[in-house]
Amino acid sequence: MLINPYKDSESSAISLMDIISGVKERGLDMPVLLRFENLLDSQISFLNNSFNEAIKKLNYKGEYRGVYPIKVNQQQQVIEEVTKFGQRYHHGLEVGSKAELVAALSLMKDKEACLICNGYKDEEFVDLGLYAVKMGYKCFFVIEIPGELDIVLERSQALGIQPNIGIRIKLSAKAGGHWTESGGDRSIFGLNVSQAITMVDTLKEKKMLDSLKLLHYHLGSQIPNIRDIRSAVLEATRVYAELVNEGAPMGYLDLGGGLAVDYDGSNTNYTNSRNYNVEEYCTDIVEAVMSILDPSGIQHPVIVTESGRAVVAYYSVLLFNVLDVEKFQEYDIPDKLDDNTSEQIKNLYDAKKNINLKNIQECYNDVLYYRDEIREMFKHGRISLRERSLSEKIFWNTISQIAKEKLKLKNPPPDLEDIESAIADIYYCNFSVFQSIPDSWAIDQLFPIMPVHRLLELPKRNAVIADITCDCDGKIDRFIDLHDVRNTLPLHEMKNGDDYYLGVFLVGAYQETLGDLHNLFGDTNVVSVRIYPDGNFDFVNEIHGDSVADVLSYVEFDPKDMLVSFREKAEEAIRDGLISASDRREIMKAYDNGLRGYTYYER
Ligand SMILES: *Cc1c(COP(=O)(O)O)cnc(C)c1O
């Protein structure tokens, strides 16, 4: 498994296993989140170059100015790198809250880049944005709800700074995908057409219409179908044209986010994919804008997009090790049953003996029926534990055989859809779904997951993945398949105590900060890697994950107090003659080590 940020050069590809050795040598434990600087850099370039090429090809007269929405990955390092790598394209930032604005202002350097302020804005927020304007930054206030305009106008008058005002509209166009509800008439943010006209009238009345410079909409994230993107651009550009006709200077058309990532690689309009590529996305947008504006001779605006997911998803890879495996047990069953075996077990056994390709559904129904009946009988004391054990062995042996037969069928019965996961191995892995890939749990998002080594060996086990939280939702049993979704992942057999590493890819967008402290598993170790064109790499930054004391302090424990109160308990145990004074020393050391330790499984 290689990472290669330089598309044209093969010598720069580096192996994830080399990175893992480097991580181990530095004494960092799994799980580790890798961030590849170069991948962020190349995604920003790719997006900007694609827009610039479409602009050139279609002879568009405006420019493209991307902004990165901070909420997608707010880590200081990420925003710093976005502003650094984005500078040559004047790639700016989008903020949705006061905290994000404060963060953006500390890192923005480029006065040509846009700083777009979405979200509810109070006086403090507005004042800060106005000062940014005064300092020469291209800072826009996007009005999301009608009431916001008053604050912006009032504060700009008070401070004597002319604002750049944008207007967020609700489109009637709706997009498919998980975030359908962000767009459409009933979306929670944005002004409807009548409210927009009222706003224009207010601005005219107050002689402030020359502040209205930007039109914005956001259809939702991960839009899988290019047709939805296109129809939204067309509708929004119509509104843009009308605002120009109303006399607003305008100049900026901000199409929000939505550029999808092809998580499952299917290149379809399925939720986890997209039926277009970045070049098509850019061309379609530029073309659609021109098709509306050119007939009425309206000047081409600066096109702004707020792509977050597509810019940062590729940036991060989560690595973890497998701690243990619970293998699906293949039981041997006798060739023949004793004559005195109870009738139901004999029935179960016969069902098993009669399996063939034609009757697997029937056989499946039968063995389920007999198994349940035998369990009932056990409850009522009519068969022994030993007999029940025999029946369970026959049952699982049959299920495993049905699963094998099923593979031979082109159109297996729908009832047998999940049968593989019933007989899958469970691979217990050193990570938390809730902390590191929350969208896998929350919205059934698929991520590419695979072993990062032993890739020339056929993986012979079928597995589901369990994390180390003790939550029954802390598992992954939906994986990418050629068609649709599969319930198990082919993995290699664990070799006598050797480490086995899996990687989860495309986790750079949304996962890090949406992740939470379920079962008090904290932030993982993070290593930033820089790859050079000759195939060498550096660890440019290492951030140690949360210690146990860190996560406890997030939930208001005070590690110092905890040490004191535990020491009192140890003292009491000495008084009661349970431990010696030197035991106390060892015990306190263990407690202290516990507080300092990584929250994950340490070797
Ligand atoms: C979340 C959000 C984005 C980012 O969308 P992606 O699909 O991740 O590119 C952009 N703009 C606004 C207003 C958002 O709320």
From TrEMBL:
Residues bearing PTM N6-(pyridoxal phosphate)lysine: K71
PROSITE patterns (UniProt xref): ODR_DC_2_1
Keywords tagged on the record: Decarboxylase, Lyase, Magnesium, Metal-binding, Polyamine biosynthesis, Pyridoxal phosphate, Spermidine biosynthesis
Catalytic residues of the enzyme: C470 (proton donor)
Record GO biological process: L-arginine catabolic process; spermidine biosynthetic process
Enzyme Commission number(s) from the entry: 4.1.1.19
Annotated family: Belongs to the Orn/Lys/Arg decarboxylase class-II family. SpeA subfamily.
Protein's recorded name: Arginine decarboxylase
Organism the protein comes from: Pseudobacteroides cellulosolvens ATCC 35603 = DSM 2933
